[in-house]
């Protein structure tokens, strides 16, 4: 997803846009149910089998949020809507092969913890 994040804009990211992974709050859902819901809302794809990769705390010194990382394959046949999120989020959904998803991943101005973690695992697994 490409999404505007004011914190990056304030810190020098010219357009404030970040490339992020699909994500959302659990809202009392189980993690797998949440990622399925967020995938269709944000990307427009209804994913089939999802595989949990790991869980981690992004900033345990100040935040209690535990993040669950999943991976899923999808095809054009699984597209159910145009995605883009809800309300005024103006998400821009795009897809790419796993190798190109991590191109330039160490770049500080475009990095998020979730994206870096996902790319690190992808790179390690080949």
UniProtKB/TrEMBL annotation:
UniProt xrefs under Gene3D superfamilies: Nucleoside Triphosphate Pyrophosphohydrolase
InterPro entries: NDP_pyrophosphatase, NUDIX_hydrolase-like_dom_sf, NUDIX_hydrolase_dom
GO molecular function terms attached to this record: hydrolase activity, acting on acid anhydrides, in phosphorus-containing anhydrides; metal ion binding
Domain Nudix hydrolase: start-end pairs: 18-79
Domain of life: Bacteria
The reaction(s) this protein catalyses: GDP-alpha-D-mannose + H2O = alpha-D-mannose 1-phosphate + GMP + 2 H(+)
Family: Belongs to the Nudix hydrolase family. NudK subfamily.
Protein name per the record: GDP-mannose pyrophosphatase
Gene that produces this protein: nudK_2
């Amino acid at each position: 997803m490409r999404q505007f994040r004011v914190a990056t804009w304030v810190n020098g990211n010219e357009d404030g846009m970040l490339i992020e992974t699909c994500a959302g709050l659990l809202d009392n859902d189980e993690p797998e149910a949440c990622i399925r819901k967020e995938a269709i809302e944000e990307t427009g794809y209804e994913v089939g089998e999802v595989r949990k990769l790991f869980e981690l705390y992004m900033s345990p010194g100040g935040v209690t949020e535990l993040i669950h990382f999943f991976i899923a394959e999808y095809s054009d046949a699984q597209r159910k809507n145009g995605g883009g999120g809800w309300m005024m989020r103006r998400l821009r959904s795009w897809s790419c092969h796993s190798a190109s998803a991590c191109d330039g991943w160490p770049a500080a101005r475009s990095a998020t913890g979730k994206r870096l973690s996902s790319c690190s695992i992808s790179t390690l697994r080949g």
